Amino acid sequence: MKKKTREQDIYYFDSKEQEDTGRCAGMLRQMISEIMQRENRKGVLLFCIGTDRSTGDSLGPLTGHKLKAAGLEDCFVQVVGTLDCPVHAMNLEQAVFMVHRCYPEYVIVAVDASVGQTEHVGCITLGRGALRPGLGVSKELQAVGDIFITGIVGGYGSYDPLMLQSVRLSVVMRMADYICASVRQALRPDVRSFCRRVF
Fold first, then answer.
1. Separation of alpha carbons 74 and 90, rounded Å
2. Are 51 and 58 in contact, with CB atoms under 8 Å apart?
3. Domains in the chain and their CATH numbers?
4. What is the b/e burial string over 11-27, where b = at least 16 CB atoms within 10 angstroms of the residue's CB?
5. Which DSSP string do the residues of 76-144 spell out, in sequence order?
6. pTM of structure
7. Residue 137 and residue 106: Cα distance in Å, rounded?
8. What is the pLDDT of residues 104-117, one digit of tens each?
9. How do residues 34-49 score in pLDDT, each as one tens digit?
């Protein structure tokens, strides 16, 4: 499903349809490729935002943990934000500074939990542009990323941060599995080898 918001295309994927990760991976690969060609970037950095202290907000660090455990990292792909070292509201600015300093020529794919329409809870969104963490719980945090991936954990109107505590862990785990599978397909070894030759 595709939706246009503020002149920006946002693609929706149902995380219950795990066999559909190939379509998400293909779109992600295309977005990364476009940025690499246009801006001569050298690699991809997955910037996973959230905290392990809140079930609903644990999507980012869970995804980062799964990506690292899958052995995705190499000189072309880096992962920031895991269960052991989460990136959250208290250290986001410092983490963004570190990433821009250490990986200035990487395409940044920001991953975070979000809120949306009630019927979209459990869906993954993918789009071009920066992610604005914290908006779902009325926080103004620094925007980050060239591409964003979010998992919708709650509905609009629930701006109470306590809402994130009542999100079912099974829903968050399913979305993290979907994102991890999509990213791994988008950045599989043959794609990375091709990107190194071209860029």
1. 28
2. yes
3. 9-198 (3.40.50.1450)
4. bbbebeeeebbeebbeb
5. SEEEE--SSS-B-TTTHHHHHHHHHHH-TTEEEEEEEEEEE-GGGTTEEEEEES-B-TTGGGT-----B
6. 0.88
7. 29
8. 999 999 999 988 88
9. 999 899 898 999 999 9
